[in-house]
Design goal:
There is one protein chain. This protein has 19 helices and 23 strands. By secondary structure, the protein is α+β, with helices and mostly antiparallel strands. It has 3 domains: 40-326, tricorn interacting facor f3 domain (Immunoglobulin-like); 334-477, Orthogonal Bundle (Neutral Protease, domain 2); 493-628, Serine Threonine Protein Phosphatase 5, Tetratricopeptide repeat (Alpha Horseshoe), CATH 1.25.40. The strands form 6 sheets. Strands 7-6-10-4-3-13-15 form a 7-stranded mixed sheet, with no helix packed on it. Strand 8 and strand 9 form a beta hairpin. The protein is globular and about 80 Å long. The structure holds ligand BES and zinc ion. Residues 169-170, 295-299, 320, 323-324, 327, 346, 406, 411, 586 line the site of ligand BES.
């Protein structure tokens, strides 16, 4: 059972504490300005931190990476700001062993780990004084730390070196660093990381692109970031620079394919800046991770982590790069205050991603992606139920894992809400508003309520009829999809749907013109075929289009679902191979779920899962254990 942290204060009256969101490095002090000396901090139900008493301003890591014992160990030193009379610093931890804590460079202090709460871990209560400036914590991680994945050489492309990567979002940073693990708290950081000499360490910070012979790496992140953007990767890596400011890291054997796939990166950065203002993080690099990475991408500042499953050879899946890049504004500059406001990160980012894609690849291409997104959203709403509270943009995740908020609602309903505003006021005004929004709140945090207030005053000029025509409250606080859901269409995809229709009507592949089809046509074609196909139909499709042999992860996922539903066994080997190799939850979830629909299928799924599970990240096993009823 989860006990909500009830004791937290949400009102900070005149403490002068620089809570992120109240002030940025450029001296912007919006909340203070709005509310005088009283800043209202959103209450984060997923953190034990009490930033109104003492708050982290800077964090210095000093860690050894031990692949043999699967642990990080060393010290984190926290520079804090305290309110008068404070005698405690409250931190988040989960599965950490805390060895010793000292204050201001010497004196040892007492601490206590509180009771563990499901998902949240344990509060770490450190005795400090109200003039304490620095708290140094000596600690080590546990081999099962949820943020960390320690890979055997066999799980990498090269097969000869181990690999480590972190995944801190949403509340997993606390499994590798004791800190205030709340997106509303931002701090700068630096780090010294020691790893085996043949490996390279990288962080979401200023990185050196070369291997260090002594295995010692120093990092500096001069811009304030929330804990969920703390990231580290260690592996056999090489770098390719596209320009002075961007490039890609990958294992040596994947570097050439990566370089080719992501060659439009400089153009994407130029496009993003032309839309919503300067990129404020210095460099932007990509890191291609091994296939067990549980997400498609993760917007770690200066160093986006990406799955290798987007390397399709034809650059057809690079919208994901546009997405992670867009987070450099929506999310990393202006950050959701709590996980209930997650749509402010993801909805804005999907919208922004669409704009980058449109600018670079044209409207027709971007429209295909938008329509695919809309169909996924409609599917999600149907699955969740149109009256499900989780179909609201503003979520209530109290007592739950914030991971439960990671659905198409935040992403796609969020995007279509912004598209609705864009259409109501016109692009020109909307773009000016968004640029202003990012610059006004840069390096700060945002709540849903505050955004809506800003929207009202800056864009809708408190014009109630405009606000009503946009239907703001229905979008944000209502369930399902509002009546004014925008119409979007794609003639390209209409053709793919017509082809699917024709095929179902008995037309042979010779009667279907697929010349010039992109990955997105194929996805829409597959999604328009309906749930049941007879064995002859499956065979006909496979023979004509060689779908089982496809090397495109998105097409594979959709095709495999058809194979499973229709009992098409020639794909069994490929499905097993895929599940053994790929750890990206977005693919694993639908494939295993499809298998689990029948008793026999579920047994087959479990047989594969038992073999594959040790290679998956905790984020993925957490979801899949539940789907398959697997007891670890
Ligand atoms: N920040 C997310 C990933 C994430 C969200 C991790 C919540 C943990 C908790 C990232 O930007 C993202 O959205 N990734 C998507 C790709 C995108 C193109 C929709 C993914 O991984 O599929
Ligand atoms: Zn995202």
């Amino acid at each position: 059972m989860m006990i909500p942290p009830l004791y937290k204060t949400t009102l900070i009256a005149g403490l002068g504490l620089a809570i992120a969101g109240c002030s940025g490095p450029a001296g912007k002090d919006e909340t203070m300005e709005q509310t005088g000396s009283t800043a209202i901090m959103a209450n984060d139900v997923h953190s034990f931190a009490r930033p109104d008493e003492a708050v982290i301003k800077h964090l210095a890591l000093d860690l050894d990476v031990d692949f043999d014992n699967k642990t990080l160990s060393g010290t984190v030193t926290l520079d804090i700001e305290t309110a008068p009379g404070t005698n405690r610093l409250w931190l988040d931890t989960r599965d950490l062993s805390i060895e010793k804590i000292t204050l201001d460079g010497g004196k040892e202090t007492t601490f206590q780990l509180g009771d563990a709460v499901e998902f949240l871990g344990q509060p770490l209560e450190v005795a400090i004084g109200d003039s304490t400036k620095q708290v140094a914590i000596q600690y080590r991680t546990s081999p099962g730390a949820a943020a960390l994945q320690w890979l055997e050489p066999a799980q990498t492309h090269g097969g000869r070196h181990p690999f480590l990567f972190t995944q801190s979002q949403a509340i997993l940073a606390r499994t590798w660093i004791p800190l205030q693990d709340s997106p509303g708290i931002k701090f700068t950081y630096d780090a010294e990381i020691r790893c085996p000499a043949e490996l390279m360490a990288l962080m979401s910070a200023e990185n050196d692109t070369a291997l260090h012979a002594d295995g010692v790496y120093r990092f500096r992140m001069p811009q304030p970031v929330p804990s969920y953007l703390m990231a580290l990767a260690v592996g056999n890596l090489e770098y390719h620079a596209y320009s002075d400011t961007c490039g890609v890291y990958a294992e040596p054997g994947l570097l050439e394919a990566s370089r080719h796939e992501f060659a439009d990166l400089p153009a994407m950065i130029t496009s993003a800046e032309s839309l919503y203002g300067p990129y404020l993080w210095g460099r932007y690099d990509l890191l291609v991770l091994p296939p067990s990475f549980p997400f498609g991408g993760m917007e770690n500042p200066r160093l986006t982590f990406a799955t290798p499953t987007i390397i399709a050879g034809d650059r057809s899946l690079v919208a994901l790069v546009a997405h992670e890049l867009a987070h450099s504004w929506s999310g990393n500059l202006v950050t959701n205050s709590t996980w209930n406001d997650f749509w402010l990160n993801e909805g804005f980012t999907v919208y922004f991603e669409g704009r980058i894609m449109e600018q670079i690849y044209g409207k027709e291409y971007a429209d295909m992606l938008t329509v695919l997104g809309m169909n996924e959203l409609r599917g999600t709403v149907e699955e969740l139920g149109a009256d499900n509270p989780d179909t609201r943009l503003y979520l209530d995740l109290e007592g739950r894992d914030p991971d439960e908020g990671v659905t198409d609602i935040a992403y796609e309903k969020g995007r279509f809400f912004l598209l609705t505003i864009e259409r109501a006021v016109g692009r020109e005004k909307w773009d000016a508003f968004l640029s202003g929004y990012f610059s006004k709140f840069e390096f700060g945090t945002m709540t849903t309520k505050r955004f809506l207030g800003y929207l009202d005053s800056e864009l809708l000029s408190n014009d109630t009829s405009l606000r009503e025509s946009i239907n703001v409250d229905a979008w944000v606080y209502g369930t399902g999809l509002p009546d004014n859901f925008p119409t979007v269409s794609s003639t390209a995809l209409d053709q793919a749907a017509a082809a699917a229709q024709a095929f179902r009507g008995g037309a042979g592949p010779e009667a279907i013109d697929t010349t010039g089809w992109t990955t997105h046509h194929w996805l829409h074609f597959l999604r328009s075929l309906g749930d049941s196909l007879d064995p002859a139909g499956m065979e006909k499709l496979d023979r004509a289009y060689r779908l089982t042999a496809s090397g495109n992860s998105e097409i594979q996922c959709d095709w495999f679902k058809h194979c499973i539903r229709n009992g098409y066994s020639p794909a069994d080997t490929r499905i097993r191979e895929f599940l053994m190799h790929v750890g990206r939850r977005k693919f694993l979830k639908p494939i295993y779920s499809a298998m689990a629909q029948t008793d026999e299928g579920k047994q087959k799924a479990l047989a594969i899962y038992r073999d594959a599970r040790p290679g998956y990240h905790a984020v993925s096993t957490h979801t899949l254990d539940e789907i398959l009823g697997y007891q670890p």
